[in-house]
Each structure stands twice: as C-alpha cells, then as structure tokens.
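Notes, Module 5: Reading structure tokens.

Key idea: the token line is not a picture. It is a compressed description, and you learn to read it the same way you learned to read a sequence, by spotting repeated patterns. We will look at two proteins. The first is printed below with its tokens.
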Amino acid sequence: MVMAHKLRVAFSIAALAAVAATGCGSQAAAGGPSHVISQADAVCKQVEARSAAINASLSKVRSQQMKEIAKVAPGFSQFELQAVERLRALAVPASLAGEWRELLAGMQQLAVDTARLGVAAGAGNSKGMEAINASGQPIRSRLEGIAQHVGFKYCGR
C-alpha cells in the first residue's frame, strides 16, 4: 500500500528529528569529534529503535493507520524533544560547530513535522501528510550529507 509506505517513511524520517536544537552544548569538551559523534549516536539510536517499533505497529493496523498516527505522533514528538534536551548538553568541538548547528536546525524542523503529521492524520488529511513529508525531503537530503561527512551512524540518517 503506497500510503502506508509513505506514512512509515514519514515516521522514520521524523525520528531523525530527535536531535533538534539550535545551538551547541554547554559542557566542557570531553573529547574530540569522535567522542561527540559516539554520544550523539547513542541518543539517536534510541530514537531509531522507537521509530522502528512505531513502524511495526503501523504495518499491523493498515486499515486504521491515520487514526494510529494521530494517536502516536504526539508521544513520539515528546520523545524526540526529550532526546533534543539530552543532545543540547553535549559539548561540540569547534571543528563540528557549523555542521552541528545545521544538523540540529534541520532536525528541529523535522521534529515539528512529526507533530504536524499527527494533526494532519487526526483530520484525515492524507494529502496534507504527503505535503509535510515532501517539504522535509530537502532537509533530509542535507542531513544525510552532513551525517556522511561527519561520520554519524544514526544521527542525520
């Protein structure tokens, strides 16, 4: 089912929003870029696992996916925001600061999209959901490029 796939893709993509924020961490640097990447990926891996669980549940309720998305999106969005708070505390070396800010800004927008997907699903607006997903595509592409360049395994993917 094409719509089901699009909805699962939207939730998978929204999971990337977990590290949404607009600034760098406030702790003193405890290591170089590889240390930050490792810490951030640990947080993002948890969000990816939650996203996978949501996608699995969505595949089981195909006839009522819109209703289910409307139900789970707010909680998932909250989970993402909690992950953001954890990532804000990371100290980012100057060598990553620019890409980190860009990554977080893009992920913040995708986090907002998670909530918007839930609202659109609750209204039965599948075209709105598709538009939200499409509007995030350039952001997702840029985040993937940053992830590849910096070396993230989970964040930005």
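Here is the second protein, with the sequence above and the tokens below, as before.
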Amino acid sequence: MYSIRQKMQESRVFKGYWFLPNDPDKKIAGILSFVPFETLKLELIGGFDTPQDYLMNVESEEVDYDDIIWGIDEDAKRITLVNCAKYGKLNLSSEFPMINYTIDYAIIGVHINSWEEKAFFKLEAKLPLFTKWINKRRVSFSTQYSNSDNRRLGFDIKFRTDDHENTVLKIKDNFTIAFKHNCYIPENQLFKREIEEHYTLEIQSEVNVDFWTFILAARKFAKFLTLACRSEIGFDELQLSCKNYYQEYRNGRMFYNPIQLLYIQERPTVLPETKKAKDFLIDYQSIKQDFPEIINNWYGFDRNMSPILQHLIESINNNPVFRSVDFLVICQALEGFHTRFKNHSKISLKDRLQELVTEFSYVNEIKDIPICITVNSRHYYSHLYLEDDREIYKGHELYQLTITLRKLLICCLFKFIGLSDEKITEVMSKNFD
C-alpha cells in the first residue's frame, strides 16, 4: 500500500478545474492547497455565482457554504471537496472575482455527491508509532561463518509474505480491523538497499459506508494507540477504497485505485517519532492473547465514556508547564468514571475516591493516595475558596498527586476494557515504579 506516496504531513498542491455537481459545464480554474496542520483551501479565478449574487452574499454577512465541490486536476484525478466555506473579494473594475474556500475534507481519486454517500468499503491508515507498538519484525537476518577460521562468509536477508499471518479481528457493526504488514525496498538505489517494514491499520465494512464513519472508526483506534503509547497519535496517511474504482488483472485479481483523504489535524505537542518503545504503557505483544476482547470493549464504549477518555488522553500529553487545571481534569474524570460506571448514587467525592483506591490498592502508590488532601485541593482550586486550616497541596506536591491520580484513572480504564489485575500490576510496575 505505502511506498513512496505523499503523506498527510507533506504539503500538496492540486491545479485543475473545479465545478459544482449540479452544474458540471461551468468549470472554474483554480488551485487546491494543503499545508499539514495549517490549511486546506481552494483558490478560484472566478466564481460559481454571478457578481450580483456574490455581492448579495457579502451584504448578508452570513457564511456561504457549498456542501460539495468537484474537481479534475492536471493528472486527471477526480477530487471531491466536502464542507466548503466561501470567502473572497470582488473588484468592481475587474471582469471576475477571486473566490477562496476553506475546505474540511478533500477526497482525492473519486467524485461523491454528499458526505453521507455510502461509497466506501475499506480504509487503510498509516499511524506513527503503530509499527513500534506491534513490536514484531518479519524480516529475518542471518550471518554465515567459516568453520575453519570463523571468517564471515556472507549474510542472508529473508522475507516471505506466506510466513506470517496478518491479525484480523471482528468488531461490532459489521466491521473488521486488521494489522497489515508491509515490506519493500525503495527503487532507484543501485548500490544501496534500505529495507523498510511497517504495519498499517485496515478497517473494512461488510457493506458500503460513508467516509465519515471510517474516520470515526480510525480515530477511535488512534485514541487507543495514544493511551497505549502515551503519545498523541494522528495519521500519517489515510486511504479509502471504493468497489466502483478498480483495475482487474489477467488472473482476475482486483486492484482498487487509491483514494486519499486529506484534512487538517491538530499539531501534536510532542512529535510521536521521539517516543521510544520502552516508554509505552503496553504494546501489542504484551496483550496479544486478550487483544480481541480488549479492542471490542474499546469500540464498545458509548458516549458515557467519551469525556473521560478525552480527559485522560489530554492528561497524557506532555505539556511543558503544569497547571492546577491539569489536577482538576483528572479529578473530574475519576469522579465521572465512578459516577457513570460504579455508583450512580449521590455520594461524596471522598467516598468515590476511597472505593477506587480500595479496588486498586494492590498497585504501588495508589493505596497511599491522600484522599482527604485530594478532596480539599480539588475544592480549593475548583471553587477558589480562601485558604483555611484544611491541608491542600501546591506546586510540586500537587504535580506528584496529579501523576498518581492519573495512574489510578489508567487502572480504572484498563480494568474496564478487560485487563486482568495481574496484567495491570505488571504494566504499572514496569512503567511507573
């Protein structure tokens, strides 16, 4: 799948003609520009509206949207732009306006009529740290030596696709996920051979679905990887497949034309590439036997878990400055977890924390969490009370308490998705002792 293709972290420019699906004869020349983490915009020399219509839109001071814009670039690729917000300028002395659009999503390789169109059956995603997280090499290397003088005779590098099975797992809603191994030697290197192997995530549906459904499924896995690797995970590349766009080989094998998906991602606080495998909470090999249950539980999370997951993921990011609000976020997540999944009754924060601490008292440090000080500190920083004789933590003590409470929240989540007490103890001991 991935060899020397451009990634979502590289700037792209598409020059071509652009038009609305309901008016394909009115084509406007323009340039689609993509700058990672910054902008995805279309610049048109002219516009789809008449100058009079454009002036009326400007005077209304409302944002004018075109849901879908189609394009054909200089390489004859079909392009669909989704959720296009118009802005621009009109010089009354000029014969044409300069119209710009900010674009939410660009789908390179196909025309669809709406973002709800069920046109795709597969998404492949390349994610940073995914290969490190899998932690399984499939290229073998061996060296031969002479028996007489122990002189090195040479070496062998071996790779065969039929030596290994790809991981394929069924998840709910007629979806499967698979870990696809890729190995290749870059071309045009006469005397240099660099072998690259990496894994990609494949999500496949039994029935066609819209691209947004695939994005949500891929983002959910990226959040799991963020937790497992303790690092913000986005996408290096996203590729969709449509059953209507393919080539058929003589042997009957189908090759689906690559359909790339571009959109603006949030810039990570810390580059994932700087993260080392030893810093991961868990890797795939350590949970391989239980992974089918774990990932199904993860995809089974409903909206009740979403804000708790978001708080935990945000707390994992290595912000350069610690703030009291970081402590409050973890307290809120713990309180919310206990309220939604343990005890719906109206009980105090102290009682909720005590129950969670007792449940995971077998984990070092958690059993020693100062609950009363935690509650006092939460009330102090949340409600901005005046200081009194109640003990609270500040500065470094508050930071250390936040780290320990985050461990407790991780334990809660790991237990919820199916990790055993023994595995939780092992993971926490390896990463935090």
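Summary for the second protein:
- The longest strand covers residues 196-209.
- Confidence is low (pLDDT under 50) at residues 1-5.
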